[in-house]
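queue> pop job 88
queue> type: inverse folding (structure -> sequence)
queue> payload:
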């Protein structure tokens, strides 16, 4: 499994998807890890976030954001690097789209994008550990299953994957 969060260089920088091993599946995240939007907005520790919804972004996370965004723009932009999106819901949308494009551009034979990332959700389905802190597997999608094929965010993200994978 080539999970974006774990694909790092020896210097702890995010690794370009083109350099990921070709023997595995490529994915933005898993059910036990933060969604892309949740990570960008620093909502990936639900217990901590619930205690302090007004927490300021940490310097360490901002450094990680810079590193991730550098990798994403290098992997997806044919021109000058794109400006880093703000730490906001709109910025998170840009990062989700760009992450999906980067992961889809890997040479891996299979790409998986969790529904939470297709929908741009911030909460991950499972947080390993004590269920008193975070009730696992209880998140609900913001749309009904029958609406998935008509959802504009999902349609846009599927088109991003198709373009990156050269699907006609």
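queue> result:
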């Amino acid at each position: 499994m080539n999970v974006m969060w774990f694909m790092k260089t020896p210097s702890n920088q995010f690794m370009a998807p083109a350099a990921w091993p070709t023997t595995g599946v490529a994915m933005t995240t898993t059910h036990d890890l933060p969604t892309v939007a949740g990570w960008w907005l620093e909502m990936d520790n639900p217990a901590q976030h619930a205690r302090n919804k007004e927490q300021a972004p940490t310097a360490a996370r901002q450094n990680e954001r810079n590193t991730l965004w550098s990798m994403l723009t290098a992997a997806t932009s044919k021109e000058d690097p794109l400006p880093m999106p703000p730490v906001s819901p709109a910025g998170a949308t840009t990062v989700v789209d760009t992450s999906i494009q980067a992961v889809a551009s890997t040479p891996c034979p299979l790409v998986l994008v969790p529904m939470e990332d297709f929908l741009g959700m911030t909460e991950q389905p499972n947080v390993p550990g004590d269920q008193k802190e975070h009730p696992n597997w209880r998140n609900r999608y913001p749309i009904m299953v029958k609406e998935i094929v008509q959802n504009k965010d999902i349609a846009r993200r599927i088109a991003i994957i198709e373009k990156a994978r050269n699907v006609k």
